[in-house]
Give the backbone structure.
Amino acid sequence: MKKVFKSRKGFTLVEMVLVIAIIVILAAVLVMGIGTYLQKARSAASSAASHNTSISIVASQIDAELS
């Protein structure tokens, strides 16, 4: 009996669907993670701006008292 070996070129449809599904899942996790970090960054920027504003108000009051 002769064994016939089929030359396998390319990927099957199932393999392609699995790869695409894994990429979609990883992208979804990445997007959710980025959203969390963006929210934290906005909060930190707002807090820093508020802090800087309060410092400038106090500095201007001190400058007015010294003048």
Notes: Helices lie at 13-66.
